[in-house]
Design brief:
Strand content: 15-25%
Shape: globular
Enzyme class: transferase
Distance between the termini: 51 Å
Order of helices and strands: HHEHEHHEEHEHHEEHHHEE
GO molecular function, one term: methyltransferase activity
Largest sheet: 7 strands, mixed
CATH class of one domain: Alpha Beta
Number of helices: 11
Keywords: Methyltransferase, Transferase
Structural class: alpha/beta
CATH superfamily of one domain: Vaccinia Virus protein VP39
Protein name: Class I SAM-dependent methyltransferase
Helix content: 25-40%
CATH architecture of one domain: 3-Layer(aba) Sandwich
EC number: 2.1.-.-
CATH topology of one domain: Rossmann fold
Length: 286
């Protein structure tokens, strides 16, 4: 099956794909986001995230990483520009206001907009900033992350940890071969948001440009496993990595070629399994 996207007429001047943003956010939350759980767990364990942690999550999406930190006792704030994903994050993190203060438990804030909107003069400065949305597969994503860090780091205390995440080497990421579909189809647009192979030093370059001191790194196995090819396609489309391809061609063409690219990873029982490795970098504010 080809995932359902909302078809609307586009003029040549408007190359933005028209998609059902609510459905895509739900697919991200229910299908794709959990693929990064090993990354979240590894970082939280390494940094001993707990009751003393005041965490600011950049591009927090539907909030799974924040929820995992909150269950360890951390006070968490999530920032994103997607109202659809943030609505799902609120469902996860913000309890029923009718509950008593005791029942509400951990502190959590969800903020739409830029990191500057996460400033809170009534609370201590953040001591951990995470950017778990992996960079390294979209042209210009390192620069966009650098802009977010420039707004976020003034909100953190000196010595605070900053965690950046990215795709591992293409030869260790089975999904890279599937994502090349996005690059091939988007090429006519030469889009600033088209897919590109991950670079070896993407994370280090972002940290250095942000004036951060590098303090460690690691790699984590994050296999992408799906119940069937349709779920795999929906999950991958929810990442936004195919948006430029949809804009350059159409959603039907992208869906057809995506299904073909997924075929080698489909098992006899219909499930799809793609081993991947992701990198994380720990840096510190000077």
């Amino acid at each position: 099956m080809t995932p359902t996207l909302v078809r609307q007429h586009r003029s040549h001047a408007d190359s933005t794909p028209r998609v059902n943003l609510w459905a895509r956010a739900r697919d991200w939350s229910e299908i794709q986001e959990r693929m990064l759980v090993p990354l979240y767990e590894t970082v939280h364990e390494r940094l001993e995230v707990g009751p003393a942690t005041r965490l600011l999550g950049l591009r927090c999406g539907s909030g799974l990483a924040l929820l995992m930190a909150a269950t360890r006792g951390a006070a968490v704030t999530g920032v994103d520009s997607s109202p659809e994903r943030l609505a799902l994050a609120r469902e996860r993190l913000l309890p029923d206001p009718a509950l008593s203060a005791r029942a509400r438990g951990r502190a959590a804030r969800i903020v739409e907009g830029s990191p500057r909107a996460a400033a809170d003069a009534q609370a201590p400065a953040y001591n951990l900033i995470t950017a778990f949305d992996p960079i390294g597969c979209l042209a210009g994503d390192a620069e966009r992350l650098g802009g977010l860090l420039a707004e976020a780091t003034p909100l953190a205390e000196r010595g605070a940890a900053v965690v950046l995440a990215g795709w591992g080497p293409p030869e260790r990421c089975a999904t890279s071969s599937v994502l090349r579909v996005a690059a091939k189809l988007a090429d006519p647009l030469r889009s600033a948001s088209s897919w590109r192979p991950a670079g070896r030093d993407d994370l280090e370059e972002v940290a250095q440009r942000a004036g951060l001191r590098i303090d460690g790194s690691g790699r984590v196995s994050c296999p992408f496993g799906y119940a069937d090819a349709d779920s795999a396609a929906r999950g991958l489309l929810s990442t936004g990595l195919f948006d430029a391809a949809i804009a350059a061609t159409d959603e039907e063409q992208v869906g057809k070629e995506l299904a073909e690219a997924l075929h080698p990873y489909q098992r006899a029982n219909g499930t799809v399994w793609m081993p991947n490795v992701f990198r994380y970098l720990i840096a510190r504010l000077r």
